[in-house]
Structures are given as C-alpha cells and as structure tokens.
Write a structure and sequence with these properties.
Layout lengths: L1 H32 L8 E5 L8 H16 L5 E6 L2 H9 L4 E3 L8 H6 L2 E4 L5 H6 L3 E4 L23 H11 L10 E4 L2 H10 L7 E4 L29 E5 L15 H13 L2 E5 L6 H14 L4 E3 L7 H4 L4 E4 L4 H5 L6 E4 L3 H6 L7 H4 L4 E2 L2 H12 L6 H11 L7 H12 L6
C-alpha cells in the first residue's frame, strides 16, 4: 500500500513542483494586494484546465460580450489566455483578453486590483489560494461521479496517505478547503451533492439554474464556433459522438483494437454515419492508438477531434451519443436523442465507490459492457430504435430545475443583485 502511494506521489511531482514555483512567484504579489484598493467589478474568466476556450465560462463570457454591445454593463471582464493561439484569436475579434504571463508583467496592475474569477472549477491555485480572489464556480459537469470531499475513502485516512492527501489538496485541488463564494448547480438534487462535496460558509451563494453551455444544445450562439470541433460536411448523414469519462492510464487496451474499429466502420458504412471521438486530454495512450488506426486505414468514418476543442455546438447536430459516466450525457438530455452507456469497466468503478448514484438507477439509454454489445445496440439505434424517451424526460427533471434557454441572462441578473451590487 505504501509503495503504491509513493508511486502516486512520484507521478504528481512535476505538477507539484510547478505549483510550488507558482506559489513563490505569486506570494509577493499577494502581499502587495493587501495594501492596494481592489476593484469589486474587475473579473477574470479562466478554465479549470486552463488551456482552450470552452465550457461554461466560454458561453457566459460570450453572453457578456453580446450584452455589452447592446448596453453599458457594470462589470469589467477579461478572458485569461494560457495559449497564444487563444489570445491571438480573441484579440483579433476585439474581445477582452489577456495573456496569463502578461498579468505578471505589463498588465500586473489588473492582477493587483482584480477581485473575482469566473471558472469551471478545478485548480484555480494562483488566484483563489495565493492571491485571495473570490471565486464564481460555473462548474464543468453534473455527471455520476463523486467530486471533491465525496471522493475521500476510508482507507485514505490512514498512515502515509495523509501526506498524499494534504499535498493533493493544497497544491492540486485547493477548492477542497477554500470556501467557494458562488456555486452554480443545476437542480435541488445537485445542490445537496455540491453542499456536501465542497467547502462552503454562510456567505456562499448557490445559484440553481442551467449551465450556460447547454444553450448551445438548443440553438446557435454568437461566437460558439470559436475553438469548436468541426467536421467535414460530406462525411455522412448521421453523426455519432463518443465522449467517455477520463481514464488516463486505466484504459483497457482490448476495447478499441484495430479489429474492433474495423467492425465499427462496417456498421457506420451501413448507416452512412460518422463516428466522432472526443477523448480527454489525459487519455493520450488511446489517442495515439486511434490516430494510428485512422492513418493506417485512411478512414473518414472515424474522426478524432482535438480534446481541447468545444464539442457542444456539434452535439446539437448529433444523432447518437455514446458515453459512460461522464457529465456530458446529462447535458445531452436536452438534445433528446438516443444515449448509449458503454460501461465496459463499470464493475471496477463501482468497487472504487466512485458514483453519486449507480448506473442501474441513473441510465438514460441501453447499458452495454462489451464491444459486441455496443455494435449491436448502435446498429439498432441508427435504424431508429429508441425506447428511452420517457426516461430521458424524467431524468431531465431530476438533473435540471430550469431550461437552458436564457440561462446566462438569469445567472447574470442574480450575480448583479447578490454579488456585484456595488457595481450598479
């Protein structure tokens, strides 16, 4: 057990070193901020995963851009770009954007005076922990998996694992012990989940509404195509998207073999469909394998999209979603198209006590555990079989209290009334 913990610490060392460097660079700035008057209306947008331009912060940011064109708004906001490409493209469009590195250089005056970050959750280490920024969590999903404090298991309370847990919480997941100021949740059910999972206090504001990104599942949004996944127009009549949860090193190599992918191609050709694979950035081993297959076969039926790109505008056109325990399938309920749960490693996840609710209760479509079952079910669904419309509707009512249309508008008004009162 101790050897396993030590190996885990070694794997985390590069990230830990990076966090320590960030800590020592930002500490003097955090000290200076004590003596500088803050601007309560100065807000920075950033992703929990840092790189890219996607998720709920993207769509709330785009909403503010459009609102600012119609009227003067009291909030001054910037997107923090960790990528030169993101910075260049947003600047070309005239959008308010700052390079992260410039905040520690020529734009440090903004860093010293800012008050809020709007984030998808995750590792906002510099801003929330070191610089003392207040945080608005728009979060990044309401799937089946446990989050934050809910992931702590009894065996982690013993021995050397306490050191591992402390290092992980302080340098990798500071939101576990820093009280959140504002948290967006999508229903009363998830309010209880987040209340138990995150550190909150009496001042924490909970907003119960839909996610800004889910508006893109219903209708097009100005600017949604910026860093969004795109596919050629002539690849097929039907679109199947495969978007699994992150597994990293835990992918089972026998699942997506060349033989299985070749059999998948035959099903796709039968229905003139295309198979879009949206993997997590950490799933690099599977990504390499899929790229090799695509190059070897020169196929146009299977497309691997950049994991940093926004998939939500494409989901609006999607005919079938294949997922597992990822939060994406709960959002896809608003598209009201068939969902297949490809849960080939469900037993392992269940043994780890990883779920808020089991798949046996929360399924939104057929659950398959082997590639043979997946191909058979996909063939049936692409042929028009769909027995789960009523169930999807019922789950939608549990997971979401309000519809996605105008979610950003409602969230904005709540923030003005409860958070940015001094800015009005």
């Amino acid at each position: 057990m101790k050897l396993k913990i030590l190996k885990s610490l070694v794997r985390r060392t590069p990230k830990l070193v990076k966090r320590l460097l960030e800590f020592f660079v930002a500490m003097p700035i955090g000290f200076l901020r004590i003596f500088i008057r803050k601007d309560p209306c100065l807000v920075f947008f950033l992703l929990g995963g840092r790189k890219g331009f996607s998720d709920n912060p993207k769509y709330f940011y785009l909403y503010l851009i459009q609102r600012r064109k119609k009227e003067k708004i009291p909030i001054r906001f910037f997107w923090i770009a960790f990528s030169e490409k993101v910075h260049r493209n947003l600047k070309r469009l005239g959008y308010p954007v700052i390079r992260f590195k410039d905040l520690f250089g020529k734009r440090m005056n903004l860093l010293l005076r800012g008050s809020w970050i709007i984030s998808s959750g995750g590792k906002n280490f510099i801003f929330s922990f070191v610089l003392g920024y207040r945080v608005i969590f728009l979060w990044h999903g309401v799937g089946m998996k446990k989050i934050a404090f809910l992931t702590v298991r009894k065996h982690e309370e013993k021995g050397l694992s306490r050191i591992k847990k402390l290092l992980s919480w302080v340098f990798l997941d500071p939101q576990r012990f820093i009280p959140a100021n504002v948290i967006l949740v999508t229903s009363d059910f998830f309010y209880k989940v987040f209340k138990a999972a995150l550190v909150t206090n009496k001042q924490t504001v909970f907003i119960i509404d839909n996610y800004p990104r889910n508006e893109a599942l219903i209708s097009s949004i100005a600017g949604e195509d910026i860093f969004a996944a795109k596919i050629p127009a002539d690849v097929g009549e039907k679109i199947v998207v495969y978007a699994p949860t992150v597994r990293g090193r835990n992918w089972i190599s026998e699942v997506f073999t060349f033989d299985n992918l070749h059999r998948l191609e035959k099903v796709l050709e039968k229905h003139n469909a295309v198979f879009i694979m949206k993997l997590h950035p950490w799933d690099y081993r599977l990504t390499i394998s899929i790229r090799r297959y695509i190059k070897h076969r020169n196929t146009k039926r299977i497309i691997l999209v950049d994991p940093s790109l926004d998939i939500y505008p494409l989901l609006r056109r999607t005919d079938v979603l294949i997922s597992d325990y990822s939060s994406i399938w709960t959002d896809f309920l608003w598209v009201d198209k068939p969902i297949i749960h490809f849960a080939f490693d469900y037993k392992q996840w269940k043994q780890r006590d990883a779920f808020i609710f089991p798949l046996e209760i929360g399924y939104a479509g057929p659950v398959v555990s082997s590639f043979d079952e997946l191909l058979k079910t996909l063939d049936e669904v692409l042929s028009g079989l769909d027995h789960y419309k009523i169930r999807r509707c019922a789950l939608r009512r549990i997971f979401f209290k309000k519809p996605p249309m105008h979610a950003s508008e409602r969230i904005y008004q709540i923030l003005l009334n409860k958070v940015f009162r001094k800015c009005r």
